[in-house]
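Email to the structure team, subject: RecA family profile 1 domain-containing protein model.

Hi all, the expression group asked for a predicted structure before they design truncation constructs. Nothing fancy, just the tokens so they can compare against earlier work. One-line instruction: predict RecA family profile 1 domain-containing protein, return tokens.
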Amino acid sequence: KGKEKVQWVCSNCGHTTGQWWGVCRSCTQSGTMKEFHAVADAKVSGFGVFDDALGSWLPQQEEAELRPMRLAEVNRGLDHLHWRIPLSGPFGNEVSRVLGGGLVPGSLTLVGGDPGVGKSTLLLQIAAIIAEGFQDGEASPVVYVSGEESIEQIGNRADRLRIESDIYLYSSNDIEDILKKVQYLSPAALVVDSIQTVYLKGIMGSPGGIMQVKECTAALLRFAKKTNVPVLLIGHVTKSGDIAGPRVLEHIVDVVLYMEGEKYSSHRMLRAVKNRFGSTDELGVFEMSHTGLQAVSNASEMFLSEQHLDSEILAGLAVAVIMDGSRTFLIEIQALCLSGSTGSRQVNGIQVNRADMIISVLIKQAGLRLREHAVFLNVVSGLTLAEPAGDLAIAAAICSSCLEIPIPNDIAFIGEIGLGGELRMVPRMEKRVYTVAKLGYRMCVVPKSAEKALGTEGLENMRLVGCRNLKEVINTVF
Ligand code: TYD
Ligand code: MG
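Reply from the structure team: attached below.
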């Protein structure tokens, strides 16, 4: 029996030390060092090298040939690095966009998200698309390994998703076993569902524990780098990070994608928060249907309520144009002003400070009598408006409700509001305005400077109305 050795592991960042510290020396969080007992002579080599001649696993070896290389030498060998595994079709394109143009061979990608958001569904569909792309030419299988479900369960899901491509299913929790079996197939890609359910023999802790999570991920990374097989790893990881060690994972892997969805909506967003091979400024938008995830074609308009698209128009609604990553979204701001009550404010989906400022500017600079009004503000579909570019739409919605004059539903508003009631330019004005025009809006209200800068090219069917301040906006729209 091996001698017990005590180790301290930070539950936040995974930093490991032989001594207890009140504050983690790596991530400086306090009270996160947890005690672990390891068997001192246990094999902690992780995933080793599979020796074909011996037919067995050898421990991890250092690469002997590594040496500094000349730049020219490096660049000559770079061609293969630009090669990416294409993902075709509308669904594939959407995933591809988030990955920065396809899946990079030898990369390790973590797909995080709340349990039940649709990660297994997403990855099974990605596996199918990769397999389809490889059907002509040499047959490279795609392997989907689940530590959560039996192969029958995965098979059932694949049926529901109407997947017909040739993917290999495997159910196992033992990383060494998984990688051994998978290596024989030399697959085009490997999916592991999920990091919380796999373990590595000889590593302390149970599956899902911080040490297991860390070492299993490291083993998968070594596998990816050594075999050049792209590995996609699922993790029940929330952005707030309430599950042990999400930060550990983020440090180890090449790409981190988060899948998000509002509770009562079928929309799912896939967002890159880390990408060693591309920008993190990308967002994929999907809809969960009974046959799986589908790319959303009219993503720009998906946050508009149905009433908005109807003909009957209510007072207090205005459309803002916001950017998320490189995508433009139209969202609906709702305001309700109740006269004859104290000036209370209820705000939902907008920063309270921002709302207060806009209301104050409307009182002072536009002469609105909001002091005697209760003001309610809401952003439709549970979104949070974080951009100043939405200021003008918020102000317009409040004006509309206060004056009880509806705003026609083919007008959009873009602009930041200053304390003097002046309208200001916002980043990527051009992209926003063209999206609005493309969607068939009749009018777009923008700061005066934007009107001058943009000209009229491509905007023949939409009136671009530049205003200097809120007073001008009110005179134009109401
Ligand atoms: P799942 O992929 O299992 O989520 P995760 O792996 O992130 O835990 O999917 C969860 C939900 O998706 C589940 O409640 C059922 C729903 N779903 C559909 O709506 N349509 C489908 O085609 C599939 C496969 C699942
Ligand atoms: Mg799952």
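The pocket of magnesium ion (ligand 2) is lined by residues 119-120, 148, 193 (CB under 6 Å). The domain at 306-477 is CATH 3.30.230.10 (Ribosomal Protein S5; domain 2). Ping us if the truncation boundaries need rechecking.
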